[in-house]
Amino acid sequence: MTDRDDLLAEIENKAVVHGKVVLSSGQEADFYLDLRRITLDAVAAPLVGRVMLDLTEDLAYDAVGGLTLGADPVAAAMLHAAAARGRRLDAFVVRKTQKAHGLQRRVEGPEVKGRRVLVLEDTSTTGASPLTAVEALREAGAEVVAVATIVDRGAAARMAEEGLEYRSAYTLSDLGL
Ligand SMILES: O=P(O)(O)OC[C@H]1O[C@H](OP(=O)(O)OP(=O)(O)O)[C@H](O)[C@@H]1O
Ligand SMILES: O=C(O)c1cc(=O)[nH]c(=O)[nH]1
After folding, report:
1. Would you say 126 is a known binding-site residue?
2. Which domains does the chain have, with CATH numbers?
3. Protein residue with least CA distance to atom 4, ligand 2
4. Tens place of pLDDT for every residue, the chain, 177 residues?
5. To test the ligand 2 pocket, which listed residue (11, 18, 125, 174) has its Cβ within 8 A of the most ligand atoms?
6. 3-class DSSP state for residue 150?
7. Is 101 annotated for ligand binding?
8. Tell me, what's the ipTM?
9. Does residue 123 have a known ligand-binding role?
10. DSSP E strands: which ranges in the chain?
């Protein structure tokens, strides 16, 4: 079994919830993928880090993150998996709105200005969330090299429209959904 196989089994066993739900976009669906049950799980999170590093190993970037909250533990998992491989990889968090006090930053963590960054998601349906992150990162002076998600629910066309390189570790068909 590879990390990719092991993570797929973890997602199938722990994250798939059947039943009517309203999604972030307002669309209705018959199932939900609660990837937080994966990215915050002691067994699955280390797999997330390695699988997402493997998925993007041909891309040149040195910081990862995305729109809080779904992207945050994915970024942390990649940071730690990279460190275990002897690679330095920073993480960042894109706030949904700019902080009004303190340093009033929208992108938190080590400075991203002038750096090549990978935008992350746990799952993408319309792609609105990673596009919000892309916009904030470009405003902060970062160069976005690609968007990567654990499970794609249908955002590939939107990403292509925006001219963004897009990777997903799994699609719904991998999950039999
Ligand atoms: O591709 P999209 O249409 O943007 O939908 C997917 C987004 O929805 C979920 O987050 P949610 O908006 O529920 O917020 P959260 O991360 O704060 O839980 C998920 O973590 C993605 O970020
Ligand atoms: O589109 C969404 O909001 C969404 C779908 C899904 O399966 N899981 C999730 O966390 N968000």
Report:
1. yes
2. 49-175 (3.40.50.2020)
3. 23
4. 999 999 999 999 999 999 999 999 999 999 999 999 999 999 999 999 999 999 999 999 999 999 999 999 999 999 999 999 999 999 999 999 988 898 889 999 999 999 999 999 999 999 999 999 999 999 999 999 999 999 999 999 999 999 999 999 999 999 999
5. 125
6. strand
7. yes
8. 0.97
9. yes
10. 16-22, 28-33, 63-67, 90-94, 107-108, 116-124, 143-152, 166-171
